[in-house]
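dumping this here before i forget
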Amino acid sequence: METKKPRVMIADDERHCRVLMKAVMNSMRCEVVGEAGNGPETLELYRKLKPHLLLLDINMPMTAGDEVLKQIVQEFPNAFVIMLSSVVDMESVEKCLSLGAANYIRKDTPLEEIKQIIKDTWQVFARSRARVANN
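structure:
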């Protein structure tokens, strides 16, 4: 029996970043089910697709990534979101982590390291969800 591929959504206003992250996720045997280029589009697609993982840019047009994250986590408390950032603005990153993001990735991180961050974060997230389910 074939196991289902993790379903991933990528939200970033920069098309080249979406293309790169899509290639990364495909190389990790994940299925990219949706892409969004702004905050409202991200919310609408997330509600419709309910992916296993959302890669979400912090700096999004129309509705900032931290606000999108806040809304998604309110509606979907088990959402698995990793933030993307092109700058090291630790204040924004820490805010997103406190709002429920599982981790963050700087966009200039080497590809193999990006894959490892996603893999490690997924494992920690899955274990924590299993513990909650068993209690």
